[in-house]
Automatic annotation (TrEMBL):
Listed SMART domains: NDK (SM00562)
Keyword Manganese recorded: no
Organism: Scytalopus superciliaris
GO molecular function, one term: kinase activity
Name by which UniProt lists this protein: NDK5 kinase
InterPro entries (alphabetical): NDK-like_dom, NDK-like_dom_sf, TXND_domain-containing
Length: 258
């Protein structure tokens, strides 16, 4: 009680899990480097309810301001800052932490691409499953991918393997694909959770109900591409739906000018 403490309020995707992992790593590092036990101790709130109670105890609404970065500088983690400077490429907006906690998850958009041969045979079933998972389809088109666009959808790991790169590009450009823009709270993570790992065999081992386990046969013919992050979702929306979307306007779309 004789020493001061630093109290921080952090906002981010999977914040509790991420912060817990970071603190665990800090503790392990401290145990290796310190023999005096004098390094700072860290304690975190474990649930939204506890977070809310502690935030009321330590802060007022005027203490919190969130900074939202423009396109290409938007990060998965956004911290709540007490003071900051705003550069020319930044937009800022005041927001109440308490209002944010009450509102809950924001409505976001993400992109699902159903690969050749999969959507034509399973479209009704896939659309029904999307409806059951509370997704709203706000954009849809079937197109033939150009090689350059197909290449842009592949991970850096695939691009490092010439054989895998050729197989993926050949398959993605072998027929028409169906591209869906989907909207719901926490859309990006929810879609990734439904698809599962890119290897259908691994997906099947984790859960046979994962979509890649059901519709895929190997890492190339795995049924789906989905935006893996918010940044990639914005990129994919602008790439596949430059004409706009038919969804109701939401704050994230306005911020990214989609």
């Amino acid at each position: 009680m004789s020493n001061p403490v630093l109290v921080c309020a952090l906002r981010g995707i999977d914040a509790y899990k991420a912060l817990s992992g970071a603190l665990k790593g800090l503790t392990q590092c401290k145990e290796r480097l310190s023999t005096t036990g004098s390094l700072p101790q860290a304690v975190m709130a474990l649930t939204p309810e506890v977070t809310f109670r502690q935030a009321i105890l330590f802060f007022t609404e005027a203490d919190f301001v969130t900074v939202t970065l423009q396109e290409h500088t938007y990060h998965s983690f956004q911290s709540l800052y007490f003071c900051f400077s705003v550069g020319e490429s930044w937009r800022c907006r005041a927001e109440s932490l308490f209002t944010y906690l009450h509102i809950g998850a924001q409505v976001l958009c993400t992109v699902l691409l159903i690969k050749p041969g999969v959507w034509s045979q399973n479209l009704s079933r896939i659309l029904r499953n999307l409806h059951l998972e509370k997704f709203t389809v706000v954009g849809m088109k079937h197109i033939h991918l150009e090689p350059a666009i197909a290449l842009g959808l592949l991970s850096s790991e695939v691009k490092q393997d010439p054989a895998a790169l050729g197989a993926h590009c050949t398959y993605l450009t072998s027929g028409t694909v169906l591209v869906l823009c989907l909207q719901r709270p926490n859309a990006v993570k929810k879609l990734m959770d439904l698809l599962g790992p890119e290897d259908p065999k691994l997906a099947d081992a984790l859960d046979p109900c994962l979509w890649r386990a059901q519709y895929g046969t190997n890492t190339v013919h795995n049924g789906f591409y989905g935006s893996k992050s918010y940044q990639m979702a914005v990129r994919d929306m602008k790439l596949f739906f430059p004409e706009g979307l038919c969804c109701a306007e939401c704050r994230t779309l306005e911020e990214e000018e989609v």
